């Protein structure tokens, strides 16, 4: 028994050819699809007897989790990818551990209070704020806002609505970022993606960046897990490693991670999950 993959090929800025080729090379069936934002995906050709893993953009993956009959479908637990969920388990390891969480509309009311508070705490010299959505589905991309850019928040409120929950933290300097793929409580692969993309073996990371590997392994082996397969981003700031965020596998960029290892291990997990439902 082998898993199959359903891969969206028209994601903006994403080259899925390496993933498609690797799935085929490992002797698995790969279904290719295209998806337009807001359109209804058609899963009528599939059934609950199919063992299929999907990979695509957030809108397509959301439809898979809601409408597709096959198992496992998407490795994308939108509930557990909320900051308000996984921060409860990994708060002490977060880069942005001195955060405030609030509806974005309330940020306007508390704008000067937060800028003043953050500038006085923790030796922080910058008064700029970093804001990001609570939701792992990312209704907007996190960004830095300076004290004189309050109008940007007004525009954001108009775009996503005042009730959307956000995370607000002081701006912090980051010198490096890495992505790890976790599967069944074990690290499958990892790579650096900032300040440049570099493929790195786990052996290299373990030997040369032990604090990075230890933090990734701590998250992977924690009692609470956000999903069976997922990605973890870790950032270096002021010489220390911190958890930046947890994301899905099915709609995450893979950068220079080892595609061969991802396909092999995630497919094995999918087959095990499929058998649990039979």
Radius of gyration: 20 Å
Order of helices and strands: EHEEHEHEHHEEHEEEEHHEEH
Mean pLDDT: 94
Major sheet attributes: 5 strands, antiparallel
Estimate the strand proportion: 25-35%
| Poorly predicted parts | none
Q: Please give the alpha-carbon distance between the first and last residues.
A: 13 Å
**Level of helix content?**
25-40%
Per DSSP, the total helix count is 9
Structural classification: alpha+beta
Count of strand segments: 13
Cross-sheet strand order for the largest sheet: 11-10-9-12-13
- Shape descriptor reads globular
Protein architecture, described:
- The chain has 278 residues and is α+β, with helices and mostly antiparallel strands.
- Among the domains are: 4-74; 104-170.
- 33% of the residues lie in helices and 26% in strands.
- Strands 11-10-9-12-13 form a five-stranded antiparallel β-sheet. Strands 2-1-3-4 form a four-stranded parallel β-sheet.
- Helix 1 (17-25) crosses helix 9 and helix 7 (202-208) crosses helix 8 (210-221).
- It is globular, with a radius of gyration of 20 Å.
In short:
It is built from nine helices and 13 strands. It is of the alpha+beta class and 278 residues long.
């Amino acid at each position: 028994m082998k898993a199959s993959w359903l891969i969206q090929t028209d994601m903006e800025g994403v080259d899925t050819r390496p993933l498609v080729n690797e799935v085929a090379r490992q002797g698995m069936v790969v279904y290719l699809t295209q998806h337009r934002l807001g359109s209804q995906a058609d899963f009528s050709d599939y059934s609950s007897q199919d063992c299929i893993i999907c990979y695509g953009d957030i809108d397509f993956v959301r439809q898979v989790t809601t409408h597709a009959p096959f198992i496992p479908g998407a490795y994308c637990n939108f509930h557990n990818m909320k900051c308000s969920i996984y921060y409860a388990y990994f708060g002490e390891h977060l880069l942005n551990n001195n955060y405030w969480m609030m509806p974005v509309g309330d940020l306007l009311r508390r704008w000067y209070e937060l800028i003043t508070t953050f500038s006085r705490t923790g030796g922080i010299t910058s008064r700029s704020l970093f804001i990001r959505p609570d939701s792992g589905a990312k209704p907007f991309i996190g960004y830095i806002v300076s004290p004189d850019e309050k109008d940007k928040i007004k525009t954001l409120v108009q775009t996503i609505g005042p009730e959307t929950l956000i995370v607000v933290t002081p701006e912090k300097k980051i010198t490096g970022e890495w992505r790890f793929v976790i599967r069944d409580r074990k690290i499958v692969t990892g790579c650096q993606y900032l300040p440049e993309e570099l493929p790195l073996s786990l052996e290299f990371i373990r030997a040369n960046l032990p604090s990075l590997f230890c933090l990734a392994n701590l998250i992977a082996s924690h009692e609470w897990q956000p999903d069976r397969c997922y990605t973890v981003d870790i950032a270096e700031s002021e010489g220390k490693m911190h958890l930046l965020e947890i994301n899905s596998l099915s709609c995450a960029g893979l950068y220079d991670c080892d595609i061969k290892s991802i396909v092999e291990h995630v497919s094995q997990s999918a087959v095990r999950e499929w058998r649990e439902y039979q």
